[in-house]
Amino acid sequence: xxxxxxxxxxxxxxxxxxxxxxxxxxxxxxxxxxxxxxxxxxxxxxxxxxxxxxxxxxxxxxxxxxxxxxxxxxxxxxxxxxxxxxxxxxxxxxxxxxxxxxxxxxxxxxxxxxxxxxxxxxxxxxxxxxxxxxxxxxxxxxxxxxxxxxxxxxxxxxxxxxxxxxxxxxxxxxxxxxxxxxxxxxxxxxxxxxxxxxxxxxxxxxxxxxxxxxxxxxxxxxxxxxxxxxxxxxxxxxxxxxxxxxxxxxxxxxxxxxxxxxxxxxxxxxxxxxxxxxxxxxxxxxxxxxxxxxxxxxxxxxxxxxxxxxxxxxxxxxxxxxxxxxxxxxxxxxxxxxxxxxxxxxxxxxxxxxxxxxxxxxxxxxxxxxxxxxxxxxxxxxxxxxxxxxxxxxxxxxxxxxxxxxxxxxxxxxxxxxxxxxxxxxxxxxxxxxxxxxxxxxxxxxxxxxxxxxxxxxxxxxxxxxxxxxxxxxxxxxxxxxxxxxxxxxxxxxxxxxxx
Length: 500
Ligand SMILES: Cc1cc2nc3c(=O)[nH]c(=O)nc-3n(C[C@H](O)[C@H](O)[C@H](O)COP(=O)(O)OP(=O)(O)OC[C@H]3O[C@@H](n4cnc5c(N)ncnc54)[C@H](O)[C@@H]3O)c2cc1C
Description:
CATH topology of the largest domain: FAD/NAD(P)-binding domain
Strand content: 25-35%
Shape: globular
Distance between the termini: 51 Å
Strand order of the largest sheet: 8-2-1-12-19-18
CATH superfamily of the largest domain: FAD/NAD(P)-binding domain
CATH architecture of the largest domain: 3-Layer(bba) Sandwich
Number of strands: 24
CATH class of the largest domain: Alpha Beta
Bound molecules: flavin-adenine dinucleotide
Structural class: alpha+beta
Number of helices: 14
């Protein structure tokens, strides 16, 4: 079969859809194969955290999504303790509460507008790979299996990933929680907080406002553990909510219910040759902290520009391997955080719960600890490992600095899907090198009001390289070397005199 420069993505969940949009914007042909014939109307994730909103901002779709939901700046995690997100750096000092289908709709619209193909009713059933590409068997109807050839395949096909199974990768872990009830409800009485959660030993509940009078209720009852197939009884929801929140927050009308269980699992590898795993296919954890969809979207943001660089022949050696190097530890950390939160919610003995409550109240009142908790849950503190001897900013999140001229912010400049070289001062080397030598691959920009380092920001908003060199000649030489490494050889070699 002829080789193809195309990327196939299994799964049109949030992970696959963000990746498809990024590849299409970067000029890479890509097709999403989705088993379901119709879009899912299921509200699983409802929390979109600050770092994910920054990723969406760098794609020009954050404000669009924010318009669909409710911003929550502070929320109760256990009785008496509140997590305050209002001091997070950046434009999004809050968590956005919006149904997952809204996030998927916004991502799908962007992907289609950029030229990605999304085929529904197309199930990946098998794969084989060789040195040049991947053959993917796709079922499109009863008995109709055909084979597609791609340069790369990404398994964004969720927790029961066929791609992961076809690679023969295990998914080790354990069951985290069973028989959790989900419902969209109205409540009698207005909760003090737009997002509030509590555990009372034999039950826990979380209530989140969509901002339109409806609330998502997540409830668990230790006294009634049943299989996922068992329907949810609104009377049980009312009883659990009363036990957890007291009489004031009675559950009223119910428009949708479901029951689920969740596991804590992670694949030992995210890459096997030309096949990658991303999102729930690579890591699954409890919904505590609302981190699953956020982590999947950020996996995709990390992988997209790397695949595009490889397919355009501009990737530095080993770039594709850095996807697993960077994202697998983040997935492990997410498992730890969501597992710890869940176990605290499930604590049963009253004395232990009292200790938990007191510890959480104390922790959330200590500013450095509270900041750290907010930075972890929101994803703002995520950073990637830097090579030995690298500048201290390497691998860190690039803050959304103001830029001189248009566009006015770094995350607006990132919308072209290119690297952005941000100079602290008006630097002829930056302007000349980026516009003449690497045009189309990197944008040069000058930060206003900053006396910091000169930094090269990756398309996913993390710092690839930085320097504090002040001598113009040496700085220009360093910049040229960094651009050559990250963005490929210059189309035109500038002479020393023209930019120094
Ligand atoms: C109750 C609940 C609440 C949650 N709350 C939050 C929250 O607030 N915040 C948060 O970040 N996360 C939350 N999550 C987790 C979140 O829903 C998932 O992490 C997220 O959906 C993962 O996205 P994904 O794209 O990786 O996988 P999925 O959304 O599972 O999408 C995978 C897609 O692949 C398709 N597919 C499967 N197999 C194949 C195949 N062989 N071929 C083709 N297509 C295939 C599926 O049909 C599906 O559309 C919650 C989960 C639950 C259950």
